[in-house]
């Protein structure tokens, strides 16, 4: 969920329906005749919506770059003002089809009248920024572990269909840490997303495994080439946990962003290692897919009944012919708002109340229904999965304090603290 994180996220960054798609649906409706008008049009639109949700797609360069300015303080960018580019914080701009990558910092000036914003360029990791004309905005602020000042080992984890690349960042030189952090990125994002949490995890004494999973462009694709929204990807997280346990870990902490949060919740529910998951830190997680899909249907001006029809396609065996899924998807089993009391893993949920991609309501509801296990920490002003980007000090402080409590030595039953 994008990541951007979503980070990219439930639907691609261009989540509004294209003009071509709208005319295609209109053509189907017009060509279906009066008798089949509603049924044909609704089915076509519902199928289109369902496929968009589960089909991996490339990033869209929807951020316009107007000029590169060299000042006494270094490089600055003048960008078209967008809902993302006018929010202060630290971000990335990917350009030239992803071959170029720059870290973008604070806002220098903003002109609502001219619809432009000028921001500092903190680093150019790759590409010729001066020639950039368009790109996409991301919360994955760093290019690799070295950009965070951390050494990492490149390794591969055995998963279904092959091997998935991962970074291993050690907490120290004294050997494997007893608890490892498994970083699970969101839909449309990559393992870069977890780098924002890597320093915090290291300072807590955790080794960090930043993983890839099916259909993310690094790990092997699923046989059907479709996202499972957590219902299939959790097996790749389980494989990462198995790797950690085989290499010295005793327990793990799952970090998940957007759809990575949904994947983490499924892992804590279904994995044979669920009893070894000490805690979870979820950033803007998808708690209830039905709620998120209904929200995106509304964003796309899709009638409620049609959006609901698309959801039914994802969960019905006959719908596989239209969606391409290898097996029906059980959205009810991934509704953790309804299953709140079943969650038995201590969980910190961080979610911005201004997230208009994955609304925060189910996150707050999960904590309200299961306060024993779930702690909810709201942010303000941040776009989807950009809580760290807006206020890294607050994010670090909250995660560090909460995890220190969870990682404290457990007392024996009946003993005096």
Automatic annotation (TrEMBL):
Spans through the membrane: 23-49
One Pfam family linked to the record: Abhydrolase_6
Lineage: Bacteria, Bacillati, Actinomycetota, Actinomycetes, Micrococcales
GO molecular function: serine-type peptidase activity
PANTHER family the UniProt entry points to: ALPHA/BETA HYDROLASE DOMAIN-CONTAINING PROTEIN, XAA-PRO DIPEPTIDYL-PEPTIDASE-RELATED
Keyword Repressor: no
Species for this entry: Arthrobacter cavernae
Chain ranges of the AB hydrolase-1 domain: 182-408
Keyword Hydrolase: yes
Protein name from the UniProt record: Alpha/beta fold hydrolase
Superkingdom: Bacteria
Keywords in alphabetical order: Hydrolase, Membrane, Transmembrane, Transmembrane helix
GO terms classed as biological process: proteolysis
SUPFAM superfamilies listed in its UniProt record: alpha/beta-Hydrolases
InterPro entries in the cross-refs: AB_hydrolase_1, AB_hydrolase_fold
